[in-house]
Amino acid sequence: KPSPKNISKRLHITLMSFITQYFKDEEPVPKSWYEEFTSKFELSFTTRLIGFGIFLGLGLLSCVFAVYVLYMPRTFAKYYTLGSLLILTSTFFIMGPMKQLKMMFDRERIPATIVYIVSMIGTLYSALVLQKIGLSIIMVVIQIIAMFWYGVSYVPFGQKCVTYSVSSVLPRWSNE
User: Fold this and answer.
1) CA-based diameter of the chain, in Å?
2) pTM assigned to the model
3) Distance (Å, rounded) from C-alpha 17 to C-alpha 150?
4) Most exposed among 40, 50, 101, 166, judged by the fewest C-beta atoms under 10 Å?
5) pLDDT in tens, 11-26
C-alpha cells in the first residue's frame, strides 16, 4: 500500500526529471583544444594517492639513505637532494601540477620557493660539478633550512610563529 510520503517523493522525482530534461541544452558545449588535451592526463583520486605515496616513499627512502652515507658529503648531497626533489614532486600528485606551481609561487611563498629550488641546484652543482665538500655541506644546510621554511609556509601563520619563536630565543642566547 503506497503511503502519501512515497507518492509525494516519487512525484517530486518525476517532476524534477521532466524539468531537467525540458530545460536541458540541446547541444553540448564543445571543449577547447586545451581542455581536450588536458583531459587526457587527468588521474583518478586513487591513482593520485598511489603516485603521491610512491614518490613520497622514494623521497623519504632517498633521504634516509643519505643519512647512512653522511661520511661521504658528495654522495650525501646527491641522495638528499634527490629525496627533496621526489618529496616535492609527490605534492604535484595531490594538488595537480599547475595548481601546485601556482601555490608555490604565491606572493607569500615565493621567497621560500626560490631559496629552496636554488639551494637544491646549488647543492648539486657544488657536489657534482665543483666537487667541493665544504661548499656541499653548506649548501645542504641551506637546503634543509629552506625546505623547513618552505614547508612551514603551507601552515597558516607558520612562518610568523617560527619567526616569533626564534626571535624570542635568540636574544636570550646573546644576553647570557
Assistant:
1) 87
2) 0.67
3) 50
4) 40
5) 777 777 766 766 665 5
